[in-house]
Amino acid sequence: MKKTAMFVLVLVFSLSLSLFLPTNTVISNENIIQVDSVDPIKIVAHRGASGYAPENTVAAFDKAIEMNADFIEVDVQRSKDGKLVIMHDPTVDRTTDGAGKVKDLTLKQLKRLDAGGWKGSQFKGEKIPTFEEIIKRYRKKTGILMDIKYPKRYPGIEKQIAEILKKHKLEQPKKGEIIIQSFNHKSMKKMKQLLPKVPIGVLITKKAHTKEKAIEEFASYADYYNPSYQILTKELVEKANAKGMKVFPWSVRSFDAIQFVLEMKTAAIITEYPEFVNLTKKVTISTVER
Known about the structure:
The chain is α/β, with parallel strands linked by helices.
């Protein structure tokens, strides 16, 4: 009976993966290994389920919820006329049919752009959302991890975000409701001063920021320590945890990488493929380049 059940699991899993895996991934029965148990881990959909739908759009965020993500990660910038919008790059060139810097375009100009067609004709017509549109649409459906992009380019953006969160009664959020993070750690210190009850995360890429002294400094104002998974180690997770910070590594895009992060016992995984995490909890997939 157990062998039959395992065969069914493998068959269903393999068929489902064929719908989503990148074309350079090869699956075979010998690549599939049962994993006995995995500790609970939060799934953060990076720019939404952006492996399946255009990043930072309603289509990607809705897909993330469909795939049972615990959080959606959104990138916050500001338009020329002072409106907060959801966009990752400093320019709109890569992910829309337009051109120019986000900070040099008005909200009206940004809203005219097609932010979905580049990902596929089925997404044509997707628009750049505003920060408030995302809060209103998703705050009751999933957690929101807000990444402030390039705060030096947007003086006062921290205060502006704080005011909007207060407007929506999120200055004292419930557990798992919102988190604010950035690569700009000075910005996060400022955010903590403005909203002491809101969880703060620091994004980490530099080896210097993995040292004991740096981790202790981050812990003085941050609740989350979020490194690139490429510099992740068990020792680093233990150091951050010992200082009271949870670890959310990013951005994990392959089954091998997801399995590695699961073994590190982090609090979450930030990924473009939220579905992969739940699947990898059951089996391990080895990917090979064609």
